[in-house]
Amino acid sequence: MLSKEIQSAVEKGIMLPLMEEFYTIQGEGYHTGTAAYFIRVGGCDVGCHWCDVKESWNADLHPPTHVDHIVENASRFSETVVVTGGEPLTWDMSELTTRLKSANRRVHIETSGAYPLSGYWDWICLSPKKSKLPVQEVYDNADELKVIIHNKHDFIFAEEQAQKVNPKAILFLQPEWSKKEEMTPLIVDYVMNNPKWRVSLQTHKYLNIP
Fold first, then answer.
1. Edge-to-edge strand ranges of the sheet holding 15-25
2. Which of this chain's residues are annotated to bind S-adenosyl-L-methionine (predicted)?
């Protein structure tokens, strides 16, 4: 049970349920292959059945950590910081991103878009989920739309999402890891027939890095 003081700090975004933080190579989407420091925040109720970090869902399992500590760690490594989850927009990202920007970091987010946008971002990667669709504000501000392809119907979902996102967003289709052998050839064919899309792969898993 959190004290009232800590609970208040979490609600204000001064402390966040930090699951893990690590320096690695971005494995997905537009910035694939670039070095980045990842901050994984606990807490998510979107509930994707194929999620590969389900241990992030329960925020209570991850210790509330002051954003100053998070920023201090991040500043030792990369100019680019990626905030992910879980679903980071479950929490107010204003304090974390303000302090990261003050430390001259480029700040990216990976989000399902299910909650209103908070914080100050240099790049917004929107990865929408059927179970809890994005709010319009995130569609309007996304730099990148990354749709996970688990089955053939997901191509229809991807096109629906592409209609909702702003016209400047770069469009990606990414095979869900457990279905990569089956879905990757279909994605390749789809992109060749629909070249507004690009292929994204979880290259970090092929490289056996975090």
1. 64-66, 15-25, 35-41, 80-84, 106-111, 123-126, 144-149, 170-175, 197-199
2. 50-52, 86, 127-129
